[in-house]
Amino acid sequence: MKLIKSEGIAHHSYFIEASGRAIVVDPRRDVDIYLKMAETAGLDITHIFETHRNEDYVIGSLELAQATGAEIFHGKDLEFAYGTPVIEGTTFKFGNAELEILETPGHTPESISLVLRDKSVSDDAHMVFAGDLIFAGETGRIDLLGEDKKRKMAGLLYDSIFHKIMPLGDKTILCPAHGAGSVCGADIREQDYTTLGYEKNTNLQLQCTSRDEFIQMKVAEELYTPPYFRKMEFFNQNGAPLLGRLPYLRALTPKILKKMKNNGAQIVDVRQPTSFGGAHLPGSLNIWRDGVPAFAGWFLNYQDPIILIDDQDHNLDEIRQALVRLGFDNIYGYLAGGFPNWYLHAEKIETLKLWSVQQLKENLKNDFFLLDGRMIDDRQEGYIEGSHHIYTGEVPVRISEIPRDQSVVVYCDSGFKSTLICSYLRGEGFTDLTSVLGSMTAWKQAGYPVVTD
């Protein structure tokens, strides 16, 4: 078995070799990696399993099935427009290897888990592919069907984990669908593999003494739901458009880019905050390179062309892949020659005011609106006195809470999200904006005071 990691969205898919065939669990949309692995090993991909209807990325099952002829399988308690539903206890045999289906609702109603056994060695479970049911140090979120369903889904999650997964045995290797950094869990541990025994002893969410206590704990969780989740759910239930290949990125001259921008194109500057603050194309949105998978779904739409700007146009393939995995097939091109080509053509530029934490502290007595763009859990650990909290991703829907007739200063964890927020607000007509470099990390490093509620 091989783990395929998709960075940014912290997605895990799995490639299983068994008796001359290959099985793929929860494939990503850019499927070349599975095809190359199968070709290298001389295997045919015959089975594709979806542990659930994923919310945070476009699943690649149809794409992979189109290329290989493999059959797709998923849970029965949701009407998919493709594939074959499976039920509890169904087994798939591949020589000595056996995959057994467990119906494990909780994260979603149709969630399934796959138990892998090597019958030539033992009847015991060797691995379990549990989707978003349980992670390293975490359990799956239960809020995606709405507030009124949280208690019911938490109860189902408890039953699935404690009555179906944990009885598989302490030595069973747990293979979750996500790793650290995923929005599908509150605080997933940085650990690719774990065992059920290790989780039993270390996962605090499994230490609850009763079903009711577990339900109360899960219902009380505060998690963010990016707006693009609805698009992913639609694609993953009804089938996403087939790509065939990754979208072609066009090299654009400043003149063409300017015209497209005036016609509504989305300009995404993927440079570092300091570079963006020093000079940038008016109206561009600053999502730093590594932040694209996490924040594109909060700030970009699926209609208008997306154009990328970097300094040297290096490694844009990674950003293209990240956007395609989120369903942004409207990615169009990039500024040829990078940002220097823009100002060398005498096109207009803008700057963004950047403060150090020392400057922020010196100016705290002045009249401005101090915005904290961190997650709620981070804020609860301490914040700068007088600040107002709006998580970065929620700024577009809570923009009315930010005054337009006052200077706005933004801080976050380290200055990346604060610059993203400022770039978005600038595009919405705000004029007096400042991003704090280093933000809370530097603030604490300087020994400045924080307050807690």
Describe this structure in words.
InterPro entries: Metallo-B-lactamas, Mito_Persulfide_Diox, POD-like_MBL-fold, Rhodanese-like_dom, Rhodanese-like_dom_sf, RibonucZ/Hydroxyglut_hydro. GO terms for molecular function: metal ion binding; sulfur dioxygenase activity. Residues 261-351, 364-452 form the Rhodanese domain. This protein has 453 residues and is an alpha/beta fold. The protein folds into 3 domains: 2-238, 4-Layer Sandwich (Metallo-beta-lactamase, Chain A), CATH 3.60.15; 250-344, Oxidized Rhodanese, domain 1 (3-Layer(aba) Sandwich); 353-445, Rhodanese-like domain (Oxidized Rhodanese, domain 1, 3-Layer(aba) Sandwich), CATH 3.40.250. It is built from 15 helices and 24 strands. The chain has helices spanning 32-41, 61-68, 150-165, 196-202, 211-219, 229-238, 254-262, 273-278, 292-299, 316-325, 338-344, 357-363, 376-380, 416-427, 439-445, and strands spanning 2-6, 11-18, 21-25, 44-49, 71-75, 84-86, 91-94, 97-103, 112-118, 127-131, 134-135, 138-139, 173-176, 194-195, 250-252, 266-269, 285-286, 306-309, 331-335, 353-355, 369-372, 388-389, 408-411, 433-436. The strands form 5 sheets. Strands 1-2-3-4-5-6 form a 6-stranded mixed sheet, with helices on one face. A 6-stranded mixed sheet has the order 7-8-9-10-13-14. Strands 15-19-18-16-17 form a 5-stranded parallel sheet. α2 (61-68) links the parallel β4 (44-49) and β5 (71-75). α3 (150-165) crosses α5 (211-219). It is globular. The protein starts with a strand and ends in an 8-residue tail after the last helix. The mean pLDDT is 95.
